[in-house]
Specification:
By secondary structure, this protein is mainly α.
Length: 100
């Protein structure tokens, strides 16, 4: 069974969390999606790179989520979400490529 790359899980969590919150009108439900995907990605980061890698990328994931809010005021909600998701995917890939 092949694994889904943690970079894809993290990006999907950011996009999916926003999409669920927006389309259901329930922000906490979007937060659940965001947290679940973040937890799955963090577990993969831990297994692949160890605790420091997991902590750093988890911090980046939270920062991406938080950073999307002020960015959305400048470029719009969806562009902001896609931008931070792409950045998070790139960071995850760069840190974990060739490991595990």
């Amino acid at each position: 069974m092949s694994r889904i790359p943690s970079s894809a899980v993290a990006a999907t969590g950011l996009v999916g969390g926003y999409a669920v919150a927006r389309w259901t009108g329930k922000r906490p439900l979007g937060g659940v999606v965001l947290a679940l995907a973040g937890g799955v990605a963090a577990r993969e980061w831990q297994q692949v790179g160890g605790g420091k890698v997991a902590a750093g990328l988890t911090g980046a994931y939270v920062a991406a989520f938080a950073g999307s809010h002020p960015l959305a005021k400048r470029i719009g909600a969806w562009p902001a979400v896609f931008s931070v998701a792409a950045g998070m995917a790139a960071a995850s890939w760069a840190v974990t490529r060739g490991k595990g």
